[in-house]
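User: My collaborator sent over this chain with a note saying "see what the structure looks like." That's all I know about it. Can you take a look?
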Amino acid sequence: MNSAPIVDVIIPIHDSKRPLERTLESLLASGLSPRTELQITVVCHNISAADIAANLTPELREIVRLIECHDNLPSPAGPRALALSQSTARYISFVDSDDTLDPHALASWVALADKHVLDAVIPPERHDTGKAIRTPPVRRFRNGNLHPVRDRVSYRTAPLGLIRRAAIERLGIQFGSGVRNGSDQIFALMLWFGSNAVRFARGGPGYIVGGDAETRVTTQMQPLAGELKATRDLLASPWFAALPVPSRRAIAVKFVRLQLFGGVERRLDTRWWSAESKEAAAEFIRLVQNAAPGYEKSLSIADINLCRSIVSTSSDAPELSTLMAKRRAFGRPATVLTHDLRSFFAPDAPLRYMIATVLH
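Assistant: Without extra context I'll predict from the sequence alone. Here is the result:
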């Protein structure tokens, strides 16, 4: 490739037995020429490039750049950062080795980004079963640049789609370090909240999450404190402290609803719940209260009841399971009404959040 490509697609892979053909073939159908416009960078994470090359057809080997990253860590942050440091493309697109893109996706995203001088394009996302992933729940008729709070962009913490490389440099964006999962949280949020030139590619070609994603190393069960470490680091960071209060609250609400409650629920359901889990969850709530005062105004009554039970020294697993089930009973008064009624119509309050998710 004699000149810089338009898009560099970065694919970390940690298993030499994992097939890449579907992912690579989808990129070849993405509307950009691999000879002049598209760079495909496969980062061989703690494995040799020769092992990956051996599983590719001669045609695919010709168009793929293989680089090695040996950091002995399970997180994709290292390989992504390495490939990013070596890229000269105008845009970056991160794709996981289990996933694919819709036909003409990259060409469509580039056209949108070029036309509106965007720093990022957030695509629609779905599972390979066809089930939509309804994040971020942006305003229903919003076709212009996104507002980080009003369009609830904190609910998409995977930096998928298209990202202008110059914006990454301008904003000083980096992946979280020293964590097994969640390293992309701060990367994505620094972009969504640091730029006013981000759009959702509603109705366009999307990103497809493969069925093997459930077994990825970053989603395997670990102690709750470890699972929440990347989120705790973000909440305690100088970057987060410098955000306006509404932004901090919006991010905190998302992390409580998804990262905290999700982690607690998985452990209650699988009998991984322990005294250490309860203390990690309580510590997380205390951190959120200090980092984003007033965040609880947008939470439902059921959410608040669960938070109070988590920090209570007398609560046990059966009580938490009951309260978890109640907060999942969407549509009941306790799940619709906010703890602070003055926040009933807030963008991330239950009513508007539910409606935006359904109409996504």
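A starting point for your reply to your collaborator: The chain has two domains: 7-217, 221-358.
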